[in-house]
Task: inverse folding
């Protein structure tokens, strides 16, 4: 075995020839985002188009780097902007300061502010780094505005505020999948993130692509059981059939 | 011109205009082939090694990134050509060409295919076939050591100097093993001409030197030539973690491009030389059809050479770099005795069977003596009481250093 051990390295590198690449050709294509990726913020709206922000300034208060500036104003009685008493009259985020810690998202009582998965945006002067409400607010279809200096790709706008949908935070399985948030304009009530009970709706939570990509790079014994060998293939087919059925229904 | 005809049938009927044209065309074709293959080789290496590391590799320029090398070359040429003020200018400028020219000349010795008939002349598909061909190969690899050494020395910088010292030591020590394996090849062929070496192997796989000589010379040759090329795992010369960039640290722009070019030329040429010496060169099955008859040997040659080029890339992807003393150990303690012993045995068998067995016995005895000597040497303690004195001295003490630096600052 000793002599053959020397060639084990050669065997490994040779095997890698046929394995899929880990890297992507970056500006052309991107790696799938993690479901809880923190990117540029969005200000959400209710399904009737009303703004969710009530101008409570909790986000500004909790922000560790003081990058959020909010001013609330009483809703005008004849054409209210938000369903509450007040609305966010001014809402500004300075992205030269923001560290994308998502504390604002945690603090928000109405799920008005969440984060998309888009992190590639650039500006050439300081004033441009301050996003105003006009830029942060979702458009009439409920999607984040695709500003010309931002690099939006497929899936980056789909699952805003991923971590928020992780339910049962204290580990109590009873709360798994319990929806505690309001519906968004366009997307409706978003699905809860899959817990540990093994029933995953990866597609609904945005973690499907990641799950598909990673097992291929693992050593055989590291691949999760449901992806291993022939049963893994069967599972894949089953998942495909399930997805087809779902698509047919909708 | 009759002495030319001994080795090259092109000159059988004297030299006329057509012959001159053919020679020029052969030279240009050889150079063109070498240049294109360098471009492809660099791309091939980067692509294969990135595949082995689960990366994508070059992909921006041309289909599959094929033009990446051209883009890199263009970039290098457009960069500023720096010559350090401490450098020895003449030698600094000469050194890259001392590496490049031998690389090109060596490729001229390689038979790429069999024979062709053009305008009634029998043409060898080989740029030149000098009678002492294989010696020219050794001479050229000897000269390219000068290029590397002078490049490092003339840079007037310490890391390149260290690198060039390593390079010359390494290349010279492996040249011995290289030379002796070539001698075994020459012994069975009975000729120094590269064409004859190839034709003597053309009667089938069992006549290839790889099998005819036993596999040992082939293995020794592959290892020695990898060291000769300064390619991984023998790239102590360019060990980035130790020596910045190696002997060409101070080189930039086009001069650096030449070093780079020569390195890859040598890789290709040496793959071709291995194929020529041990795998029968263009030998292989060919159909008995007029045009395919000369096309197939070329294809065989290319396939074999690409196979070896792949092996070099594979080595690079798989093997960690040797420590410098390991390089020297392998060269002097393993490869040289091995190749020398094997050469004696082969020579003995070529004379008579009895001589062969006797040589084998002699070699075995001397190996056991050597092994004993090496094991004694390994456990030798170097200290004040030891018989052998310590080689070299400790680095300069602080006072002397301070004096030197004080002088400089004045």
Result:
């Amino acid at each position: 075995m000793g002599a053959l051990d020397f060639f084990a390295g050669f065997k490994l590198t040779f095997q890698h020839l046929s394995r899929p690449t880990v890297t992507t050709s970056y500006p052309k294509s991107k790696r799938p985002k993690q479901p809880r990726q923190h990117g540029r913020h969005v200000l959400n709206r209710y399904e009737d188009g009303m703004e969710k922000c009530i101008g409570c300034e909790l986000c500004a208060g909790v922000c560790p780097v003081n990058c959020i500036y909010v001013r609330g104003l009483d809703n005008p009685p004849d054409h209210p902007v938000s369903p509450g008493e007040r609305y966010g009259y001014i809402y500004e985020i300075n992205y030269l300061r923001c560290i994308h810690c998502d504390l604002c998202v945690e603090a928000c009582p109405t799920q008005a502010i969440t984060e998309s998965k888009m992190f590639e945006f650039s500006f050439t002067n300081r004033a441009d780094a301050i996003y105003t409400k006009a830029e942060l607010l979702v458009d009439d279809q409920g999607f984040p505005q695709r500003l010309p200096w931002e690099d939006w790709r497929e899936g980056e706008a789909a699952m805003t505020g991923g971590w928020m949908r992780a339910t049962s935070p204290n580990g109590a399985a009873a709360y798994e999948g319990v929806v505690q948030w309001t519906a968004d304009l366009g997307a409706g009530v978003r699905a809860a993130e899959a817990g540990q009970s093994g029933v995953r709706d990866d597609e609904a939570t945005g973690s499907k692509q990641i799950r598909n990509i990673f097992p291929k790079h693992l050593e055989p014994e590291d691949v999760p059981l449901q992806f291993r060998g022939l049963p893994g293939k069967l599972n894949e087919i089953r998942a495909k059939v399930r997805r087809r059925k779902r698509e047919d229904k909708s | 011109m009759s002495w030319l005809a001994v080795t090259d049938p092109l000159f059988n009927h004297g030299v006329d205009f057509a012959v001159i044209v053919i020679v020029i065309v052969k030279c240009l074709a050889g150079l063109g082939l070498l240049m294109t293959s360098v471009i492809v080789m660099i791309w091939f290496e980067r692509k294969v090694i990135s595949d082995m590391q689960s990366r994508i590799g070059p992909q921006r320029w041309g289909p599959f990134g094929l033009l990446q090398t051209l883009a890199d070359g263009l970039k290098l040429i457009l960069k500023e050509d720096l010559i350090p003020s401490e450098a020895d200018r003449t030698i600094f400028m000469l050194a890259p060409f001392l590496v490049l020219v031998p690389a090109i000349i060596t490729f001229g010795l390689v038979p790429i295919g069999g024979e062709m008939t053009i305008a009634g002349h029998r043409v060898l598909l080989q740029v030149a076939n000098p009678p002492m061909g294989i010696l020219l190969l050794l001479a050229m690899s000897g000269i390219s050591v000068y290029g590397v050494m002078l490049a490092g020395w003339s840079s007037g910088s310490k890391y390149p100097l260290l690198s060039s010292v390593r390079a010359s030591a390494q290349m010279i020590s492996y040249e011995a093993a290289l030379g002796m394996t070539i001698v075994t090849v020459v012994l069975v062929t009975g000729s120094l001409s590269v064409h004859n070496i190839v034709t003597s192997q053309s009667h089938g796989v069992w006549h290839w030197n790889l099998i005819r000589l036993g596999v040992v010379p082939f293995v020794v040759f592959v290892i020695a030539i990898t060291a000769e090329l300064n390619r991984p795992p023998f790239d102590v010369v360019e060990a980035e973690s130790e020596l910045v960039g190696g002997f060409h640290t101070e080189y930039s722009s086009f001069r650096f491009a030449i070093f780079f070019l020569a390195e890859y030329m040598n890789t290709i040429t040496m793959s071709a030389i291995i194929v020529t010496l041990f795998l029968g060169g263009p030998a292989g099955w060919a159909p008995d059809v007029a045009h395919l008859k000369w096309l197939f040997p070329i294809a065989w040659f290319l396939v074999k050479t690409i196979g070896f080029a792949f092996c070099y890339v594979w080595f690079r992807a798989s093997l960690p770099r040797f420590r410098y003393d390991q390089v020297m150990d392998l060269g002097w303690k393993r490869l040289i005795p091995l190749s020398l012993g094997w050469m004696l045995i082969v020579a003995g068998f070529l004379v008579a069977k009895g001589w062969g067995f006797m040589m084998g016995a002699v070699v075995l005895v001397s190996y056991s003596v050597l092994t004993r000597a090496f094991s004694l040497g390994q456990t030798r303690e170097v200290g004040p009481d030891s018989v052998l004195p310590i080689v070299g001295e400790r680095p300069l003490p602080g006072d002397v250093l301070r004096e030197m630096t004080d002088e400089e600052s004045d």
